[in-house]
Amino acid sequence: DPFADDPVRHPDLITRTMKPRNAETPEQALSAQFITPNELFYVRNHMWVPKLTPDEAEAHILTVELPDGTTKEYTLRDLKTKFAEKKITAVLQCSGNRRSHMSRGSGRATNGLQWEAGAISNATWEGVLLSDILADAGFDAATVRNGTSEAQHVHFSGMEAYGSSIPIKKAVDPQGDVLLAYGMNGKPLPRDHGYPLRSIVPGHVAARSVKWLSQITLSDEESPSQWQRKDYKCFGPNQTKVDWEKAPAIQELPVQSAITGVKLGEWTTPSQETSSDSAEPAKEVALNGYAYSGGGRSVIRVDVSLDDGKSWSQANLLPDEESKYDGKSWSWKRWTFNGAVPLEAFKTPEDGAAGKETDDDKNTIRRGSARRPANESSQHTKSNRRCTTVAIKATDEVYNTQPESHAATWNFRGNLATAWHRVQVCTDC
Ligand code: MTE
Ligand code: MO
Fold it and tell me: Does one domain contain both 237 and 277?
């Protein structure tokens, strides 16, 4: 069993598969802190987790191969002692984050792990700049700028066999902040996250942040791995037999956001003086979540609708981000919203409606009707249970925003599910 040596996982992580280990960050942990704690950071492994002792880790060798075939080797100790350390706070998001929302929201199945909104996390990574290492290994970044570089791609290979690549431009750009990281939130990388060394490619899909990194290869071609040439690509909603070569590999990520907490409060009745036009009772609602965009583009706004997209207001963006890196924003933004849903917005629930998520007053987001006990739904029929759908979408600094429906961006691999996050919120009226 190649998985026998896999590390023990925190019980709060939500397991999707055990072998290989795949687990998402629980909703509360996504918005409770700006920095996701190491033990609650989502885990996406295609294979087993390599095991090294601390001595083996210090002596671990990273081989850098230039386009002419010459190589240079660095031990982890070399990286730590001979180069300037850099810290970058950056999100990693799997291309499959929210895939289950795409499947339910479009009513069409997708291939891959059915993640909810927790295949994304934010951490501070400690390491050395890839651009420094490439320069030390003898690669001249000026050739990229003047168009004479033989190398167009930088391949990262992991110890187990996983590999992928990024464009050379991102790799040599000191402002691209690509790290070879050995630390995570002030501690050595945990085994699940790449101990002793991984690449961190801020602003790009996490599939390019290769764990257990052992080799870097500069090449005129992309990595030949299936994770570069297949898997992480998108096609049209009608395309199921595809020519993989025709679509580019996902690199920079589009804008994304999710609701990670819903809490209903009291019924309030506006006084006649303050609100002459609506004396209707309204249900207080508090929402929170995250928003993120790739390519270093910061999120400038999160819009909230309490009536499934008919009317909108704005969420508060928390002033979390401690630093922008040369104008680039690699982290998510957390947001909160406090409002009230007018009584008239609550409608009879669509039981088991595809693509709907229900919530109750206990601040847990429910997944369709599957997990609701049978007796509970019959209770609801008798009671005055009424629901509304809250929806959110984010906009980034170049005014990219999220599509309204998953049907419009459905792709058979279920990649880049970024449609408005809609959650059905129910209460007794
Ligand atoms: N690197 C290696 N060596 N093996 C892997 O399976 N998975 C990739 C990437 N790097 C992977 C890897 C994918 S698809 C994702 S989403 C991220 O690692 C997940 O990183 P995390 O487990 O630290 O959250
Ligand atoms: Mo991923």
Answer: no
Q: How many domains does the chain have?
A: 2
418 or 358: whose pLDDT is higher? 418
Is 207 part of any domain?
yes
Q: Is the ipTM of this complex over 0.95?
A: yes
Mean pLDDT within 252-256: 98
Q: Which ligand is nearest to the CA of 92?
A: 1
**CATH assignment of the domain containing 314:** 2.60.40.650
Residues 230 and 350 grouped into a single domain: no
Q: Show the domain range for 111.
A: 14-246
CATH number of the CATH domain containing 198: 3.90.420.10
User: CA nearest 365: which of 214, 257, 221, 258?
Assistant: 258
The arithmetic mean of pLDDT across residues 16-24, rounded, is 97
Print burial letters for 282-315: b (CB count within 10 Å at least 16), e (below 16): bbebebbbbbbbbbbbbbbbbbbbbbeeeeeeeb
Ligand 1 centroid distance, CA of 157 (Å):
11
User: What is the number of the ligand closest to the CA of 227?
Assistant: 1
Amino acid 382: pLDDT: 56
Q: Which residues line ligand 1 (CB under 6 A)?
A: 41-46, 92, 94, 158, 160, 162, 192-193, 206-207, 209-212
Task: State the chain's mean pLDDT as an integer.
Answer: 91
Residue 2 above 80 pLDDT? yes
Distance CA 106, CA 87 (A): 40
Question: pTM of the entire structure?
Answer: 0.93
Asked if pLDDT for residue 371 goes beyond 60, the answer is: no
Rounded-to-integer distance, Cα 176 and Cα 165, Å:
15
205 alpha carbon to ligand 1 midpoint, in Å? 10
What CA–CA distances, in Å, run from 272 to 276, 280, 338, 355? 5, 10, 22, 39
pLDDT of 42 over the 80 cut: yes
> Which residues are CB-contacts of 270 (< 8 A; sequence separation ≥ 6)?
278, 279, 280, 282
